[in-house]
């Protein structure tokens, strides 16, 4: 998803920093509140249109799908109380809860899932996440305008039974069902608000543990309040969770040090300064920050120029000294720790092979760049590097500017803009070179690899390779029922993409936190929507 999980990925968005506001009194009872800071704005809470991790984290708590993902992405019953899978793995039958309701009192029914999926896949919606439905009957045809949305392989058999038909076995299908793109939508609400649907808290309804309030669509504060209509409200211990956008991490840390906040995410600089304090924790993220060059531009169609840009970057320095905060250099597009081989348990990043262009080699980089410029009839090159305006991303931009300008004849200007704007610019191809990112939508390598296929809307660089497309297609189809063959397809695909420099991977992000022990029960997963507050509480 972007930060498109990436995509996406919305460049420069950090995950949420959770901060305890403190316990007060309300009507003789203890007020159960967590106050949360984030450096990312909300852009929309329309599950068909958002691509930002911060928004998916909100949707994961104000809405609920067929399943809910618990610790370590374990699949748990959600709106579906049970389900069965056919022997060939192509038919899923979900039995829905009769007591589930929307926050406006409407029942949550099987038709709400049918409507939501058809709406997301409808080309008129222009969802960047329609590709995740690939493998569901007719999903690809619908996206390519070769079939009607009504032919999608999902059917409501009455109000509380849902049947999904697949074109081939999808090994990770129920993991997908825990991702907000597959959550239900109330058609009555969509029709009521039209183009304004999901653009503010009041233009949406909710079926999850919490409801969204206080977000006007442009402000930087909002609250998740306990949903009294939620089917499992007895399990929800918090009254509310308050969010505010704090782009400067020093603000949160100062409040933490004053005892006003109990949990604060640290910047790279702060993490270094804090050393190894006992209340500091690390969290991995299934992510990749990378450079995308617009390959519609003749210059960037040249492989040597792309390789030179990759080779001039010292990723070890970038990850450990510039970014810090748990960032790692894994020489990969797929993140480390996401998935292991069905053959021998080897991490995906260890099974793949990084090309020479992923290794810092300034001498070779300068040679390649000179040759590349000659091949495109240039003696020099100037471009603007587009990135978000978070403090860490500004620091990244400055480092990349310094590194890239070591290539003779290259001049790099910087343009750091709000996250609200960068996704739109990237999706529309309004950039020359940009820092982008992808955060895994679920715990499988394909969540990264899919976005580099030729027609994927999150493939912002415009790179195309028919052999790569064939490998990804095979992994999702013919080899879908053969775990080893599928794994080999994905390994070959990543090797090919990196060798051809489809994108320029930079680092895998991580988080460093200062945490007060009073905050308990928060479920954090490295892939998909990261935070599940359903059973969080204040001790």
What does this structure look like?
There is one protein chain. By secondary structure, the chain is an alpha+beta fold. It has two domains: 33-243 and 516-538, Alpha-Beta Complex (Dipeptide-binding Protein, domain 1), CATH 3.90.76; 284-511, Dipeptide-binding Protein, Domain 3 (Dipeptide-binding Protein, domain 3, Roll), CATH 3.10.105. A five-stranded mixed β-sheet has the order 1-4-13-12-11, covered by helices on one side. Strands 18-17-19-16-20 form a five-stranded mixed β-sheet. α15 runs antiparallel to α16. The radius of gyration is 23 Å and the shape is globular. The two termini are 33 Å apart. Mean pLDDT is 90; it is low at 4-28.
What is the element layout, followed by pairings?
Layout (H helix, E strand, L loop, with lengths): L16 E3 L5 E2 L2 E2 L2 E6 L14 H10 L4 E3 L5 E3 L2 E6 L5 E6 L13 H12 L17 H5 L10 E3 L4 E5 L7 H4 L10 H7 L16 E4 L7 E6 L13 E6 L3 H9 L5 E4 L1 H7 L5 E5 L2 E7 L9 H9 L3 H9 L24 H4 L10 H14 L5 E8 L2 H14 L5 E8 L1 H9 L5 E7 L6 H4 L16 H11 L6 H17 L4 E4 L2 E6 L3 E2 L2 E2 L6 E2 L4 E2 L1
Helix pairs in contact: 8-11, 15-16
Number of helical segments with 4 or more residues? 16
Number of strands: 25
Classify the beta-strand content into a percent band. 15-25%
Q: List segments where confidence is low: pLDDT < 50 over at least 5 consecutive residues.
A: 4-28
Class inferred from helices and paired strands? alpha+beta
- CATH third-level topology of the largest domain: Dipeptide-binding Protein, domain 1
